[in-house]
Amino acid sequence: MIGKKYLLLSGASAILLFLSITTAEAVEQPILEEDTLQSTHTNVAQLSKKELFPSKKKQRGNSFDWIEQNTTLQSDLNDAEQSKNRMADVSQLKDDGNTPTDSIEQVTSVSQLSDVRPTDWAFAALQSLVERYGVIAGYPDGTFRGNRPMTRYEFAAGLNAALDKINELTAAGAEDKVRKEDLITLQKLQEEFATELATLRGRVDTLEAHTAELEANQFSTTTVLGGEVIFAVSSAFGGDPPGGCRIFPDDQGYFFDTLTGGRGPGDRNDDDEVDCGNRKEASRNTVFSHLTRLGLQTSFTGKDVLRTYLTTGDFDNGGFTNPESLNTYMARFSHQAGLNNQVFLDLLEYRFPAFNDKVVFSVIPFGFELSSVLSANSPYFDTGRGSISRFGQLNPILRIGGPMDAGVGFDWTIADPLRLQVAYGTRNSSDTETGFIGADHSALGVQLVVKPTERILTGISYVNAYSSDGSLGTYTGSVNAETAGLWSGSSIPSDEFNSPGVPLEQQLNAPSGFGPCCGNYIGDLPAQINAVGGSFQWRVTDQLTLGAWGGYMFTNFLEALPNDSVLGDSAGKKPYGTSATYLFSVGISDPFGREGDLFGFLFGMPPKLVSAGPETDGTPVPFFEQVVREEEATPVTDNNDNLNTNSEFTTDGQRTEDPGVLPKKVGVKDKATSLHFEVFYRFRVSDNVWITPGFFVVTNPGHIADNDTIFVGTLRTTFRF
């Protein structure tokens, strides 16, 4: 049976012949790079087509695989290729397996072809032709897989290459360079292998005709069209609390209707109000959602790549993170995007190599994240084929800054086992008042990726970010951790409005809207964020892989609190907060002998505020942030009693008497610990379809001991084309 172990011919005919004898594999779309495009501004996860857990059987690729690639090292520990190898020529066809596609190199001595017997009569003839004319190509290791004799078809392939070379010399008028005895030898060899030559040439003719038809009908000669569609049926239970809160329009609810009697100016925002004291039954109905992405990839030089793609989805109102549902970011899915079925530009980027292909530069005018350039080093960072939870995808420190707009970066292969990656991006990059450098949110990330052995891959990361409101932007942990203590948008007591003896009417007129307790609206406090983290993967066996990542995030607010006497020990101090996170994972590839399947188990702690201060009386407001671009902002409170500022009950259902409702507290660390447990099994139905049932469990959601455990499950089906 004719397989991939053929000698390859030089020139275009050799490439066509090689393709003809690998008819068991479908012709793939060209792929420019090997690793994952981790940036998507729906933040719904990306993972490389080259997974950490490889299938032994090579599978047919699909054109959407390129959307999941970028300059970063990703899943396959045995194939953490260098930038120069990843930026392959656009005409080069790659396989969709998880072992590297073998490169073809010219062999100038037939003795290098170790599986050709020197005792065969044809060996001497072939040796003479190869060494004189240099016409046969082979694999770099000098073998043809299996240490067996060359078949007659393989020999015919080499003979055909020799004939082509002689014909080229003759056509070029260089007959004097061709020895007469070589022509005689070629004639004898042609007679001996006439049947095999006829068969192979017939296949070349057929493939040439097929290639011409494909070129005539292809989408574009320079652009590839790909897509991914994810269907998910999802449900949840538990979590009552933190879920089941009530939502009111802005400036309505117990505080505004009863305590101030409508006499105050209202709070300083236009957001809805949340009441988690007077709860109702949590909304946990089964939902059917989708995420759809279409992308275009264009190359102008064969090494560069311009990518553009569009996204839409319908997991609306924050899904299970909504206060009326489970009310925590810890319930968010990886494939979740509440875009109301509207189509938006999701990514626009251009990448190109330089310095002998050792450095890959990335210019991303839209859709940037730190993970666009910095390696996630996670086998589960994939929208449709990786973890089912947002938290399980990658180290949250690589999400700092949230969904940004524009960014730049580079990936430098310093040496074979060592790579340096640098990325910088901002929000509102096109705003003329702040620009690309002075934006209200920015992040600079640096990562060193080291592959000390063939089975171990590690990464050390550092992030320096600026946030105008002190928020991290990861949306994976507690609201308290996201805000470093609930400072953003809060109000605190002031001497002017809250000193002893100040009349109630004067307090009600305080601009904060919470004058009776907290007359000073501090608004958005800017902060500098520094984060350090590490990632680790170890392929113990071909089927078993262990992984881990973790990190610390240090938030230091840049402005001190006022020197008001009513603040006590907090007066004049700068707020701060430190958050920590970690995750461990176990992956088993090809379980039960099913090639392409993947079983994953993940255990970790979502970001937790482990240190904060100074603890201060204050009135925080529900946290409203946009997790993904174009998605409507959804309030999340985690059932944190310090955010329950608009209820006559505490979050544990106890009635409070006036004026005991307020103030609450800001600058308080998380008191309990949430633990995340996740299990999923990915079934490979075909090269283009995967079905993944899975669920995850979070204890003490929001790092609050009074919150009930949440259970979230999904049946996810992924189509790629």
UniProtKB/TrEMBL annotation:
One of its GO terms (cellular component) is membrane. Residues 1-26 form the signal peptide. Residues 636-653 have a biased composition (Polar residues). It comes from the Bacteria. Residues 109-173 form the SLH domain. This is S-layer protein. Keywords: Signal. GO terms for biological process: carbohydrate transport. One of its GO terms (molecular function) is porin activity. Belongs to the OprB family. Residues 81-97 have a biased composition (Basic and acidic residues). It comes from Fischerella muscicola CCMEE 5323. Residues 78-103, 631-660 are annotated as: Disordered.
